[in-house]
Amino acid sequence: MKIRPLADRVVIKRLEAEEKTKSGIVLPGSAKEQPQMAEVVEVGPGGVVDGKEIKMEVSKGDKVIFSKYAGSEVKIDGEEYTILRQSDILAVVE
Amino acid sequence: MKIRPLADRVVIKRLEAEEKTKSGIVLPGSAKEQPQMAEVVEVGPGGVVDGKEIKMEVSKGDKVIFSKYAGSEVKIDGEEYTILRQSDILAVVE
Amino acid sequence: MKIRPLADRVVIKRLEAEEKTKSGIVLPGSAKEQPQMAEVVEVGPGGVVDGKEIKMEVSKGDKVIFSKYAGSEVKIDGEEYTILRQSDILAVVE
Amino acid sequence: MKIRPLADRVVIKRLEAEEKTKSGIVLPGSAKEQPQMAEVVEVGPGGVVDGKEIKMEVSKGDKVIFSKYAGSEVKIDGEEYTILRQSDILAVVE
Amino acid sequence: MKIRPLADRVVIKRLEAEEKTKSGIVLPGSAKEQPQMAEVVEVGPGGVVDGKEIKMEVSKGDKVIFSKYAGSEVKIDGEEYTILRQSDILAVVE
Amino acid sequence: MKIRPLADRVVIKRLEAEEKTKSGIVLPGSAKEQPQMAEVVEVGPGGVVDGKEIKMEVSKGDKVIFSKYAGSEVKIDGEEYTILRQSDILAVVE
Amino acid sequence: MKIRPLADRVVIKRLEAEEKTKSGIVLPGSAKEQPQMAEVVEVGPGGVVDGKEIKMEVSKGDKVIFSKYAGSEVKIDGEEYTILRQSDILAVVE
């Protein structure tokens, strides 16, 4: 089974704390909006969203930092994913 | 009797828990916005909505994930449906 | 006496519960936004509304589902009507 | 003395309850936004408002239904008027 | 000393109650947004404001009705003025 | 050290009460939004801001009236400045 | 490891109080929105953001003043960074 996100949406899988530590990224416990790290699993086609042309800038497999409270969570085949808009992705970690 | 949704609206029928389990999708009980799974029953014609050209990307019979709090519920001939905008549909499950 | 709605407004007359039952539509008593069924009585000319070209998609006599809290109520010659924007109409029932 | 409304504004004079009854219009006492009936006294020139071309659709002498809470009240030469935007006028009664 | 308002701003001087009475305008003490009467002292050049072309429709010396809560007050050379946007002026009294 | 404001931002230095008195401007202590007087210290380049072409209308040395609650304060080399958008400047005093 | 910010986002590293003092900038402890000083570490490519063409005006190594509550914090390889939009940067200090 496969999720095909619509428009400018992206399906991501959150990275576990251990993976974050291995990759050297630690997210602080402040009261501010906390970004999270995840891996991109599926990318929507982009196109015209709200009358604006959106070009997708992330690809499957990218490690990304995204806003903690963005998106919706869904569990498929026992795995948890988050579906969010590309504009909720802050940066790609290379 | 048939519902003809206007503009970018879509009529969907929520999938029961058993169907979700059979299809391998389980929705977690978190405090965040919870997506739901449904089958598309009717699709509006799209066209110009709020001055923006909307092209319909979903089709009758598609299994879709949508925002739990989106749309309006209506019961027709004993069946419950939800009418929502296409932009409230997050992804198609294939 | 006749009401001529301006712009993208539509005058509708709510259908009584009995009519809804006869037509097979029952509206559930949930806490969510509840759609209502009504018959279209008058349709505005459409045209440019908020700088956007609006084409009217409903016609006199259409049975429509609309958002419960949309529009303004008015009583004319002893009959109650609701005046709302076409965008508050969710679907036409055929 | 004469009021010349700017842009898409309209000066109206509310019709008294007796006039409403004579004309067959009664406004219900519900908790919802209540439309009111009035006669158009002056009409602004329209033109570009908020960057959008507004064409005036009402004329002096029109009986109109408008949103109760719209506009500002002013008393001139002992007469009370309301100044509102044309978009706050719901319909013309003919 | 002279105030040169920027863009679509207008400098006005409120008319005293006596002047209002002389000119036949009385403003009611209702709970709704109350318009006020004033004389236009300085008019900005208009031009592009928020990406929209604004043409100034009022002139120095015009008696205008404006929204009570609009604008900012300033005292210059012992005189109190209000600086507001032209869109907060409802009508010109002639 | 020099501050180079971005886009349509302006760096201003508030005028002290004495300077205001000397220049004949007194700002009233009302409950409404209170404009303040200041001198323009640095002016951003303008250009496209939020997709709209902004032309700078104020110059270094201009005495301006601005909204009290607009902008951010910063202290540089012991001097306090305010950085705000040009649209928060109400008028130039000449 | 490197952060590649998307669109109009910028990665900055806050300057410590000592660095601010050395550079002559002191930020006051007022109740208003407080700008902060930081050094630009990475700059996104700009391009079309929300349908508007954004050109990046800051460069790696720039000392910038930004809104205190803007952006998201992230710790990478033991260093804390803030990711924000260029429009949250008020000025460059030269």
From TrEMBL, chains A, B, C, D, E, F, G:
Main location: cytoplasm
Keywords, in A-Z order: Chaperone, Cytoplasm
Any one cellular-component term (Gene Ontology): cytoplasm
GO molecular function: ATP binding; metal ion binding; protein folding chaperone; protein-folding chaperone binding; unfolded protein binding
InterPro entries: Chaperonin_GroES, Chaperonin_GroES_sf, Chaprnonin_Cpn10_CS, GroES-like_sf
Alphabetical list of SUPFAM superfamilies matching this protein: GroES-like
Gene3D superfamilies: GroES chaperonin
Cellular compartments annotated: Cytoplasm
Function: Together with the chaperonin GroEL, plays an essential role in assisting protein folding. The GroEL-GroES system forms a nano-cage that allows encapsulation of the non-native substrate proteins and provides a physical environment optimized to promote and accelerate protein folding. GroES binds to the apical surface of the GroEL ring, thereby capping the opening of the GroEL channel.
The protein's assembly and partners: Heptamer of 7 subunits arranged in a ring. Interacts with the chaperonin GroEL.
Protein family membership: Belongs to the GroES chaperonin family.
Protein's recorded name: Co-chaperonin GroES
Biological source species: Peptoclostridium litorale DSM 5388
Phylogenetic lineage: Bacteria, Bacillati, Bacillota, Clostridia, Peptostreptococcales
